[in-house]
Design a protein that fits this description.
669 residues, 6-stranded antiparallel beta sheet, 13% strand
């Protein structure tokens, strides 16, 4: 490769800082970007550094144009032929920044790259704002501003000074940012909508259930949602969090119908006792259903509705953290009168699958004498016979329920719920699977409940004449400690050891709870700082009936005060240095002499020129000059300043007598 005739030393010194700022900005996007984009960025960064260090020529324009077209086509194809949204947008920024490196010749080009770095840092916040997002944002801004200052000073000052300057600028801006964040009027919906990536895997439960699906979540400590109760907390055996209902069965997999609102859903719901009021903060799942304590009766979720099977659903996928209030009743009766088409749908079984289970169910029903007795007999069978609850169930074949009941007898909650529902249907009883979560751990650090992915659970609802749909959990018959203690409690108490659970140390668990409490507060007070919290906060500060006009006027006034204070601080910091006493006295001497020193003229040269003009006595000029040099550059100290002041006063007095005007004493310096 041909060499350039020369190189810009300042560019060579500042380029590493620009590369570091750009890499720092791209880093959080790499987990969402195709690997080829990350590889392209690294290759371009290394190549650009080698070109600058070895003074190689940059690639010609036609090469950069071809690379740009190829990269754009690659992004377009990698994101399902679209460039709209956070994913494609950040990918384009990253790859175009990489290609921009290949034409960076001057500092102006590096400024463009630093602008792109700031955009990439902000784009990472569009996906999620974790607790560490704030330190990352601050660190990214400090690094970018440091690179900026290194270029502006041509890298002449030390790196520590640039870091300090960047930190001070950020410190000056922080009061303004805080005031804007607190007082700028919040609205319930954003000014614009940014498409969020929904192509990734869903978090938590899916809309279908096969053997082994839920057991795969059992070791996940990821938070599904957090709950704050207004009053007493329900006992563990009542902590069933209803999600979605599955009624179609093909012999192996349970699925449900497309969720839709049913305006008559509450008509078939009878509730008793005291209501349970609580607030849920749910993590994004990319799914439409939301969770509520069984059975939900009211909720504050915008665009939320109840389906025909009494599950709460949103009109849009939950692609961001959402908080909503809900009301549930622990005592209820669902659909005491069941339409025939609903009954028919919930007793349907494939004729050629699991024949042994169907025959067993019919025999037990004939021996039971009543539907309720049959249900109790099946639960007793699970409890008394050699069935085992395990997180690692063996694989099942084409007749999974038969193989489970008559062969392996080892399974997780989905195995027992599926087998129980199939036996109910084989005996002519309508049944369905409910997917959700069971349990929840109280965090003593924040007095709220954490429901994790490991609490994912499946249970069965059976319709009985005159009683409606009733909840039956065959897992409770096999492993009651799973229901009473929950997965977290069983793990810590050692109960889950035989299921395959490893118990963490209690110290580590306490640290996890402390960190989660901090996360919950961050979600509540920072990410959840919406119109209601803003109004409440303004009222606590004494603002009566806060509205957007009052907050905007307060914001403008506060910003004016803060800008004035910051301006005064900057003016005081960067004002010209005041001359020392010796320099001020020497300036009075030259003014009285009537001859200004030339630029760059030394005091001795000035004294010789002044003496040659005859304007002043050479002896007086020599005396003032010697005292000035001793006071300014020597070790004369305060005594030297005093002597210089007297000499200047005497010079003024003699000059005044010679001119015939009264002498005026000089003020003290």
């Amino acid at each position: 490769m041909r060499r350039r005739s020369g190189t810009d030393g300042s560019l060579l010194a500042s380029l590493p800082w620009t590369l570091a700022a750009l890499a720092f900005a791209v880093a959080p996007h790499t987990q969402y970007l195709p690997p080829w984009i990350t590889g392209t960025f690294l290759a371009c960064a290394v190549a650009r550094w080698q070109m600058e260090r070895k003074r190689w020529r940059l690639p010609p324009p036609w090469v950069r144009i071809v690379l740009s077209l190829l990269c754009f086509a690659g992004v377009f194809a990698s994101f399902n032929y679209t460039v709209s949204g956070v994913g494609p947008g950040s990918a384009l920024l990253a790859v175009m920044a990489a290609l921009k490196l290949l034409e960076t010749r001057q500092r102006r080009d590096q400024f463009v790259l630093l602008f792109i770095s700031i955009f990439l840092i902000m784009a990472s916040l569009l996906r999620e704002q974790y607790v560490w997002s704030l330190p990352y944002l601050l660190a990214g801004l400090v690094l970018t501003m440091t690179a900026w200052l290194r270029m502006a000073s041509a890298a002449s000052e030390p790196a520590r000074s640039s870091f300090g300057g960047a930190g001070r600028l950020l410190l000056y801006a922080s009061p303004l940012a805080l005031a804007m964040w607190i007082l700028f009027p919040r609205i319930a919906t954003p000014f614009w909508a940014v498409p969020i990536d929904t192509s990734g895997a869903t978090a938590g439960l899916n809309d279908r259930m096969s053997p082994g699906d839920i057991s795969s979540l059992s070791l996940s400590n990821a938070v599904a949602f957090r709950v704050e109760f207004e009053g007493s907390v329900p006992p563990p055996s009542q902590r069933y969090w209803r999600g979605l209902v599955l009624h179609r069965f093909n012999g192996r997999t349970w699925t449900g119908s497309e969720a839709g609102g049913d305006p008559h859903a509450r008509a078939g719901l009878e509730v008793y006792g005291e209501p349970i009021r609580y607030e849920i903060t749910m993590e994004p799942t990319q799914q439409r259903w939301v969770y509520a304590l069984d059975i939900p009766y009211g909720w504050s979720l915008e665009n939320g509705f109840m389906g025909s099977e009494h599950q709460v659903t949103s009109t849009q996928p939950i692609d961001q953290r959402v908080a909503y209030s809900a009301v549930s009743y622990l005592q209820y009766r669902i659909d005491p009168a069941l339409p025939e088409w609903v009954r028919s749908r919930n007793v349907r079984l494939p004729a050629d699958r699991n024949p042994r289970t169907a025959e067993l169910a019919r025999e037990m029903r004939r021996a039971a004498g009543s539907d309720r007795q049959f249900v109790e007999d099946v639960l007793r069978k699970f409890h008394e016979e050699s069935f085992y609850y395990t997180l690692e169930p063996p694989p099942l074949g084409s007749h999974p329920v038969d193989e489970f009941l008559f062969g392996t007898r080892r399974g997780f909650c989905e195995h027992y719920a599926s087998a129980f529902a199939v036996m109910m249907r084989a005996a002519g009883l309508p049944s369905r699977i409910v997917l959700g979560y069971q349990g929840g751990e109280i965090n003593p650090m924040g007095q709220y409940m954490i429901v994790r992915q490991s609490d994912a659970h499946a249970w069965t609802e059976v319709w009985l004449q005159g009683r409606g749909w009733e909840r039956y959990d065959p897992t409770a018959a096999v492993a009651p400690e799973r229901i009473e203690s929950g997965m977290s409690g069983a793990r810590l108490a050692g109960i889950g050891a035989r299921w395959g659970l490893d118990a963490p140390s209690r110290l580590l668990h306490r640290l996890v709870l402390t960190w989660d409490a901090f996360n919950a507060k961050w979600n509540d007070w920072v990410l959840g700082y919406g119109p209601e919290k803003q109004n409440s906060f303004m009222q606590s500060l004494g603002m009566d009936r806060p509205d957007w006009r009052k907050m905007m006027l307060t914001l403008v006034g506060l910003l004016a005060v803060l800008v004035s204070v910051v301006s005064l601080l900057l003016l005081r910091r960067y004002r010209p240095r005041r001359k020392d006493a010796a320099a001020r006295l020497y300036g009075r001497f030259t003014r009285k002499a009537g001859l200004r020193p030339s630029v760059g003229e030394s005091p001795l040269a000035y004294a010789a020129r002044l003496a040659s003009t005859g304007v002043a006595s050479p002896k007086d000029v020599e005396q003032v000059t010697e005292l000035y040099l001793a006071a300014r550059y020597g070790c004369a100290g305060r005594a030297g300043i005093t002597a210089l002041r007297e000499a200047v006063i005497n010079f003024k007095a003699r000059a005044s007598r010679e001119s015939g005007s009264p002498a005026s004493a000089l003020p003290s310096g």
